[in-house]
Amino acid sequence: MRRKRPVILGIVGDSAAGKTTLSSGLVKLIGPERVTHVCTDDYHKYDRKERSEIGITALHPDCNYLDIMALHLERLHYGQPILKPVYDHSNGSLVRPEYIEPREFVIVEGLLGFHNATMRNFYDVKVFLQPAEELRRAWKVKRDTTKRGYTPEQVVADMERREPDSEAFIRPQREHSDIVVHFYPPADVPPAEAGANLNARLTLRPTIPHPDMSYLWNDPQSDDSGLRLILGRDSNKPVDILEIDGEVSPDHAAALEKVIWDHMPEEHPLAADQFGDYYDRAEMRHSDPLALTQLLLTYHLISQYDKVAELPFARPVAALSRVNP
């Protein structure tokens, strides 16, 4: 029997940009039995000790097997299994590889997923996470001190050491995304204290079709609702910008949720209450901007799945290897 190839979503961003938090909500919405999750940061060539001795950061392309990553993306695109390397972030070691079979949807997250044209060819939807830098730094300190055994001073020093590679290799990938997600704290609120009240700005590029949210253009109360759809420019190209205030009212958030839900094909049942949640240390909290972002990305995955039979398969890596990044 023939079956549709998997739909692949790429989520790229700097360390502690929120990639895993965003991905976990998508898995819950669609259902873990239908989603395969892959982290491209597992493709490091060197463990933590070796990187320190060599003097290279995990953000540098030379520190990662990008050629193997591209081959694995090709196999996943065609619905074939991979033997994926595994990097243990808790202690910085390379451990036993994992056998992965792609399900209907594949979420690929990591630092360098859009680094070259070969890899970019195999995604159906590409998302770049770009939280406010002071916010990302606060998240990284919190995560690395609680989960990875670092002191705050070590985390800050590591970020400074990585900054040239962030500027050279991570941030330029933003230009290749279909959607840019920017979380930022309200004015005069310290990043560490913003919590669930973070604002979100979604840059929606016309490289993929987005659901009709035009009612936000025409709503005279939109400035007070906490939801705005604005025509703007990004990289000197026209884009739609969806702004979601952290304190958006539940009624207005529910209204936009309904607009997006109404665009979902009925043959794809989703978990309507399983998104927008995140852990703040040990406490579970809810964010409406996060929930709306996850729901919009789920819409794109489902929409691509219904079109995938009509889409041409990507060219083989052998042919793409002749294309310059």
What topology does this entry show?
Elements: E1 7-13, H1 19-30, E2 35-39, H2 48-54, H3 66-77, E3 82-88, E4 93-100, E5 105-110, H4 117-120, E6 125-129, H5 133-147, H6 152-170, E7 179-184, H7 191-194, E8 199-204, H8 215-218, H9 222-225, E9 227-234, E10 237-244, H10 250-262, E11 277-280, E12 283-286, H11 288-307, H12 317-320
Parallel strand pairs: 1-5, 1-6, 2-5, 6-7
Antiparallel strand pairs: 3-4, 7-8, 8-10, 9-10, 11-12
The neighbouring-strand order within the major sheet is: 2-5-1-6-7-8-10-9
- CATH architecture annotation: 3-Layer(aba) Sandwich
**Computed structural class:** alpha/beta
Q: What is the straight-line distance between the termini?
A: 36 Å
Taking pLDDT < 50 over at least 5 consecutive residues as the criterion, the unreliable ranges are: none
Question: What Rg, in angstroms, do the CA atoms define?
Answer: 20 Å
The number of E-state strands comes to 12
Shape, please?
A: globular
Estimate the strand proportion. 15-25%
Number of separate helices: 12
How much helix, percentage-wise, in residues? 25-40%
In total, the number of domains comes to 1
Mean pLDDT: 89
Quick one: CATH superfamily? P-loop containing nucleotide triphosphate hydrolases
SSE sequence, one letter per element = EHEHHEEEHEHHEHEHHEEHEEHH
**CATH topology name:** Rossmann fold
- CATH class wording: Alpha Beta
Please describe the biggest sheet, giving its number of strands, its sense, and whether it closes into a barrel. 8 strands, mixed
